[in-house]
Automatic annotation (TrEMBL):
Enzyme class: hydrolase
Coiled-coil ranges (or none): none
Species of provenance: Winogradskyella wandonensis
Name of the molecule in the record: Signal recognition particle protein
UniProt GO BP: SRP-dependent cotranslational protein targeting to membrane
Keywords noted in UniProt: Cytoplasm, GTP-binding, Hydrolase, Nucleotide-binding, Ribonucleoprotein, RNA-binding, Signal recognition particle
């Protein structure tokens, strides 16, 4: 994960990690390298610039150069800022409803259906949760089949209504079915498109208004870099969602989406997807991710 970015940051911080004396000049050089590494990872220019400015400010504020171990302190400041940029403390999902309704949103291919299954499995394994998956993609019969396959794999019931082309009605019927059958979590998988378009936005917005979910999650493919961030912004403008799910972090992703998305939409990344299997789900911890990135 993020090998290229980690290598570049490691090289950038090399001097500070105790190789050679530390001066104002090489701190400035280091920050320039850090910024370059972030840009190469597809982090938005403004965010990369703000990031290094903040690190610089903190370093000045703490009189880094006069401390006993200036290099280590600088590395710590970079790590703390990276953690902050990705979201600070980890946040869970709201499961206070009965049933708790979780609405999944995102583009087609982002990994919504796969993640819906992963989340259902994750919650089911918590014993106190009995999830129901609801298939609301009325355009692609294959998407409904896919959710049924996933449901069977993890032993979670799937509610669908083939032939019904009203996703609002299906989601409401799904919630009613959950209530009648003792499901305390409902995960609603919706239709995506290949790109943001008005019809999709109207549809997801209508579902959102009609069912008032406890939790609205936006799923995005981390391989799509800055596009991921732009898509997140478009969905957030419409849904004011509660959290982001970053998928495909097992692939050769550069890291830009993971680093930038929180500060653009001001919503936490809650989970990550790290593979196609149902078990490939992890809670997102910004500080652990920063540790991983900085090696
Ligand atoms: P949807 O159209 O948003 O419902 O996306 P899907 O759930 O159908 O996922 C699209 C493709 O991405 C499928 O081939 C999934 O197996 C794959 N996929 C989903 N999540 C991950 C992940 O975390 N890692 C990898 N490597 N593949 C994933």
């Amino acid at each position: 994960m993020f090998n290229n970015l980690s290598d570049k940051l490691d090289k950038a911080l090399h001097v500070l990690k105790g190789h050679g004396s530390i001066t104002e000049v090489n701190v400035a050089e280091t920050l320039k390298e850090v910024r370059r590494a972030l840009l190469d990872a597809d982090v938005n220019f403004k965010i990369a610039k703000e990031f290094t400015n903040k690190v610089k400010e903190k370093a000045l504020g703490q009189n880094v150069l006069t401390t006993l171990q200036p290099g280590q302190l600088m590395v710590k400041i970079v790590k703390d800022e990276l953690t902050e940029l990705m979201g600070g403390d980890a946040e869970g999902i709201n499961l206070s409803g009965n049933p708790s309704v979780i609405l999944m949103s995102g583009l087609q291919g982002s990994g919504k259906t796969t993640f819906s299954g992963k989340l259902a499995n994750y919650l089911k394994n918590k014993k106190t949760k009995k999830p129901l998956l609801v298939a609301c993609d009325v355009y692609r019969p294959a998407a409904i089949d896919q959710l049924h396959v996933v449901g069977e794999q993890i032993g979670v019931e799937v509610f669908s209504d083939r032939g019904n082309n009203d996703p609002v009605a299906i989601s409401k019927a799904g919630i009613a079915h959950a209530k009648a059958n003792g499901h305390n979590v409902v995960i609603i998988d919706t239709a995506g498109r290949l790109a943001v378009d008005e019809a999709m936005m109207t549809e997801i917005s209508n579902i959102h208004k009609a069912i008032e979910p406890q939790e609205t999650l936006f799923v995005v493919d981390s391989m799509t870099g800055q596009d991921a961030v732009n898509t997140a912004k478009a969905f957030n403008d419409i849904l004011n969602f509660d959290g982001v799910i970053l998928t495909k972090l097992d692939g050769d992703t550069r890291g830009g989406a993971a680093i930038s998305i929180k500060s653009v939409v001001n919503k936490p990344i809650k989970f990550i997807g790290t593979g196609e299997k149902m078990e490939a789900i992890d809670v997102f911890y910004p500080s652990r991710m920063a540790d991983r990135i900085l090696g």
